[in-house]
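Priority: medium. Attachment 1 of 2:
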């Protein structure tokens, strides 16, 4: 009789909330803003945020948006989160599929990985841009905040 090693299946809990993030830079580099929205699966909004970043690139803005959202999720006491972003670069770098080559992104990547490590589980999902309209609207609102301070 063949013997097979026993194994326990890994069960990933359902996320307590979904974090939608987006960063935008007009001109790239140019005036940039970020947006994040944190929602329970029921649709209940736990957090929305947008900020103006100044003059930077879209990739820096994408990282800053995920940092804003992850910090908000931690402040809410959440342990299981799904991050949805339309930046393939961001998601694939955070998953370890792509290397971080740009020196300006490395500290942001390190900070994001550190924040991610504070959760029990984080699912990283790349989504099509048209599915990220709420976070995109918040990111553009962040850019539009300049001069209104």
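Attachment 2 of 2:
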């Amino acid at each position: 009789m063949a013997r097979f090693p026993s194994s326990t299946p890994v069960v990933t809990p359902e996320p307590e909330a979904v974090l939608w993030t987006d960063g935008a830079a007009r001109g790239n580099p140019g005036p940039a803003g970020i947006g994040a929205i944190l929602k329970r699966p029921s649709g209940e909004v736990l957090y929305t945020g947008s900020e103006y970043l100044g003059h930077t690139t879209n990739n820096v803005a994408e990282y800053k948006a995920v940092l804003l959202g992850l910090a908000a999720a931690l402040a809410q006491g959440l342990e299981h989160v799904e991050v949805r972003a339309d930046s393939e670069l961001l998601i694939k770098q955070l998953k370890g599929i792509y290397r971080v080559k740009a020196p300006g992104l490395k500290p942001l990547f390190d900070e994001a990985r550190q924040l991610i490590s504070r959760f029990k589980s984080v699912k990283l999902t790349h989504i099509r841009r048209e599915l990220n309209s709420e976070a995109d609207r918040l990111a553009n609102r962040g850019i539009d905040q300049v001069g209104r301070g």
